[in-house]
Amino acid sequence: MASSEASAVGRRRVGWKRHILRQLQQRDRAQKARFLELVQAYNKLLEKSSLDNFTAKLQAKSVDNPPGLSSSTHQTCSHAWSAVSDSAETVEIVKRIHEGHVRQLESANGELAFKIYEWNRVLRAKEAALEEQRDRLASLSGQLSDLETERRQLQAWAEGLSHANAALKEEYVALHHRHGCQEGDFRRAAEKGLELLQFLLRGKAEAAQQANERIERAKRARFARELKEAAKATVNIQEEQDMGSTSLPEEENGGKLRNRPFRSASASSMSLSRYMNVFRGLFDFRLKRGNSVSNLSVDRYCCIPLCVAACPPSQVSDVQEAHASEVNAVKFSPNASLLATGGTDRRIRLWNVVGGRLENMQTLQGANGSITSLEFDPSGCHVLAATYNNAAQLWKVGECQFKEILTGHTDKVTAARFRSTRHQAVTGSRDRTVKEWDLGKGTCCRTINVHSYCNDVVCGDTVVVSGHHDKTIRFWDSRAPRCTQVIPVEGTVTSLSLSPDQMHLLSCSRDNALKVIDLRMHNIRQVFRADGFKCGSDATKAVFSPDKSYALVGSADGTLFLWSMASGKLEATLPGAHRSAVNAVAWSPSGAYVGSVGRCRNVVLWR
């Protein structure tokens, strides 16, 4: 009986444990089912988010170690199960552990649900942004296709323009070559025509001289023949006491003197008148033919005004439109009554300076290139111009066409100056030569080879000074073919101006400075600089005043700058008259007026 009771008690104990074990297994299955739903939800979320690695880890974790259970919890459970199997007193402990486990699982479930909600919200936002980016991508793709189409059109247009430009370039090269050939033919034809004209003039002069000699010989022979005939002719003289004869008074001793008749003029009056006519004809013939030694109309020098004190310019006196394009040169005549301007339109205009106004007097035509410099001869009757057509040309005031052309340079002639007389001139060119000319013969009598472009020249009594592109000023002796002095400056020399007493030289250079050189010591005496002054080009001209009291130059902004030689300071600035760079300035020999020209086609008269 006792054994049966013991076995019954044992079975009850074993059933109780099995019951607990079944409940625990049922709880595990329920919890596992819950987590399987969560795992499926996570799998869907990760599939949408392309997070496969995270899904694999989450599955492994959900099977092996459910969320919310730590390693310490498992250890506790294992100990609890051992305690349950050992004793019944551990039921409360297991219950508490179970409740804590449930609370942990519920907490973990809530956290995971909240995370799922947050991730769903983020996913929806990402999907909306992705859709927006897709729309933007489609719009940009359309714009890209439109731009690509436009690029292809522009590329085709550029290729067409390139082909057209190449064709135009070839046509331009052909036209330029043709122009060069025609210009060379024209120059050769002009030289040939000039030679033929000179030959014709020489032939006419020789023929006229021979005719004059024949006429003179014939007149002399006729005169000698008439003299011989007159010497052979006899004249009868009658002794009469009348008005045609004269009686001599009686001698002092009372005797009568015999009558002393004189030769009657009636017999020889006609022949003497004819002889006088012959002589008068000879003299008149010489005067008519112009065989005198000098021609007063040509060799007469005008009265040059003497400048005691130059008046610095302060205001604009007159403004005239001088040329159709840029004006490069301006010059006053020696008597200060004329102003000459020359520009790129290949014309020289002469202006009368009357009462502070400019009156158009004459236009000299026939220049073969742009005018770079102008110069009056000492008499003021001739104008010498340097041109871009590799030549210098000579005009006579009052005649429209040029009188002489000086050819021989191979590049642009940048300067042309008279010597002390109108029969000699000096030219400088970019072909690195300086030439001296005999204007009476129209030939070059000397060529000086230099080492750089020549931008300007001036002439003294026995020296020629040249300014060059290599930042030097060179002095040449007119009596010997050698360079006597070289003065370096800090910039390209653009112009030279010789003082009236030939003791100082004013140079303008591209370092934006004017330098005064003492020609006795051959050193730089003064340097003029100013804020705002900038040399506009390689042809900017600066000048001395006639009394050598001031230095004047134009700037690239159209302002005139005036320095005092005595103090070395800036005396005045004259803005407003020019709207662009000033190329050249000129001071009248009387000291009363200043002329300035530039790129704005106008000539400005200052006083």
Automatic annotation (TrEMBL):
Q: Name one Pfam family in it.
A: ATG16
Where does the sequence pass through the membrane? none
Subcellular localization, as worded in the UniProt entry = Cytoplasm, Cytosol
Q: Which residues form the Autophagy-related protein domain?
A: 19-212
Where does this protein have coiled-coil stretches? 123-150
Q: Does the keyword Cytoplasm apply?
A: yes
Q: Ranges of Polar residues compositional bias?
A: 235-248
UniProt keywords (A-Z) are:
Coiled coil, Cytoplasm, Protein transport, Repeat, Transport, WD repeat
- Region (Disordered) residue ranges read 234-262
Q: Which InterPro entries match?
A: ATG16, Autophagy-rel_prot_16_dom, WD40/YVTN_repeat-like_dom_sf, WD40_PAC1, WD40_repeat_CS, WD40_repeat_dom_sf, WD40_rpt
Spans of the WD repeats are: 320-361, 364-397, 406-447, 544-573, 575-607
The record's section on SMART domains has: WD40
Q: What is the protein's known function?
A: May play a role in regulating epithelial homeostasis in an ATG16L1-dependent manner.
The entry's family comment says: Belongs to the WD repeat ATG16 family.
Q: What protein does this entry describe?
A: Protein Atg16l2
Species source reads Phrynocephalus forsythii
